Here is the input.
Amino acid sequence: MVNAVSCMLGKKVTGPLPLRDEELERIGREIRREINARFGRSLAIRELDAGSDNAAEIEINNLNNAYYDVERFGISFVASPRHADVLLVTGAITCNMAIAAQKTYDAMPSPKFVVAVGDDACDGGIYKGTYAVLGGADAIFPVDLKIPGNPPAPIQILTGLLALMRSAGKRT
Amino acid sequence: MTGKDTGAAATAAQEIFGSGLSGRLAYGSSRECILDVNAEELDRAVPGLAARNFVLSALFATPAYGGEGYVLRYVFSHAGSILVLSRALSGKQAKSIATIFPSATWPERECRDMYGIEFEGAFDTRRLVLHETCPAGFYPLEKSFKNAPVATKKTVPPAEEYPFRTVSGDGVYQVPVGPVHAGIIEPGHFRFSVIGETVFNLEIRLFYTHRGIEKLAEGKDPAACVRVAEAVSGDESAANATGFCMAIERLSGITVPDRAWHIRTVLCESERICSHLGDLSGMLTDVAFALGASHFAVLREEFFREQEKLSGSRFLRGMILPGGISRDIPVETLARYREFLARFAKEFRAGLAIVLSTPSVIDRFTQTGIIRKPLLGPLNITGPVARASGSGRDVRVDSPYGMYDRFIPVPHPLNDGDVLARFTVKAAEVLDSLSLIEKVIAGMPEGPVISADGVGDGAALALVEGPRGENLCWVEIREGRVFRYKVRTASYCNWLAIEHAAPGNIIADFPVINKSLNLSYAGTDL
Here is the structure.
């Protein structure tokens, strides 16, 4: 009880993050500006693993850790494709995922954007031309942007999203 | 790795076959006993090995090189002692052993999908790896099939949909989840049968991310194929690259320089810490304890950054090669890494103290998703999941490879088998891996980091302890190219534990149970 009270009344101590990445902050501010201007202040992303080796998922998840914390820039990852502006596709499209991937895309409201994350999503990568995959994300959807990498680091994904925002500005 | 195993495997073979064994038992380069058996001998051996508490670690088929037909390889193990029974098939008929060794169920279905081998008496003959859109009569691993796109069906009529086991009764309803889940995670389908809020039955369906890894490896130059091994499962890149390279080194008789093995050990233990940090953070996310989750996520990000400094890749890719490693790590980089580890240890312990003194977390973790010890052997469950349910199995201790005979991990087994036990075991393993890395760096010799010896032809088995448990790989090189690469990750076996851990819990606890097992979809689906 005493502990709880002292927690409430006591001085709050927070420390600065040991790494403040100015490059990240700059990209973040620009993304924020673009999202404010074109997406009504929030960009909703639905992630879709269409046959990834899970490394790209880990990096996309990392965008939410305290170092990047991309929600402060107006980016949120949503559970339903019906809430999404952007489909972030990882992995080559496997034959086993093709139907589910198509349903996910179809469930998104227009206008919608597709971003391929990682070499395999960009063009099939090491799986190109094999029996188990249809190819990169563009084998089944129109793709607006490709972010190569094995996997791309969080900052590269964010830079890619900024490029998408800018090209979306030209499209609309 | 030479010398004859006089352990449980040789004794069991001797007892089962008696005088019929005379001179037939061979020894592989991983000290495993190898015995070629016919159908009748296999029938005799299987119950005999079950009675002696052997587990079926893997079962896979390989095409007979330079001949017709296939060889089925049954890898049995007991306390680190391994017996491989090879059964040559002239046709495509074999006998199921799944009623005696349940861990044969998936491998038998897999052999059927990939080669068309039928297992007489199998109780589950549904497709496993290839889903409904895949044409009938297509067997991707047959050597006559040259890897190329196949015509798949665009839609699946309801009559051809995958038949899940049906559970019926008063008030039982189905909750289908996936393959596309609500978070940023890999795809898979969970079919819950629920009464009220309580899970009554769970059936999983995977292989949505089947990328044809094993076929992709075939015909590749061994060094170029490491890239494929690293793609088995992103967060186990170093473990799978190590297993693949170890098999090649063993079949070729290559001795890896000491410094290279030291560095590999640093990489693999670093990868284990990174993986466990993700699990600890994820478990806390799933019980809505954001403070702890954020703490471990921050530490994990720092680990990824350190891994990039060590290897040039946040996922430690491109470092491990057959014969050693691709480039040395400078002394000053290793020194800075050690300084980071010291800082990390302090922060990690601080985070752990916060979590373990938070009653709401302990309450959610305790008695949730229990995996009982008698399940471990029949399903071949390994890794931290097994060690939280009373198992002592750890490849690094049972069959030491690389540096692990000099730098010995200290197991921290617990018996409760619930989410709390898995959390605690993983936290203890983070600290243990830290101390291993410290010792390995401190004892690191100077010298070359790659052997000049070339890769030869042959086949070998290799077992490594990945972050999730025992990863087994079998590599066959013919004419200097990969002829067969079989990898069986810990996840492939551990996945079935979830069907036993979930029932009796409420659906709302499923995410934390799932996260506490941290199973790789990619590493299972291949």
User: Anything to note?
Assistant: The longest strand of chain B covers residues 469-478. Chain B has a mean pLDDT of 94. Chain B has 18 helices and 15 strands.
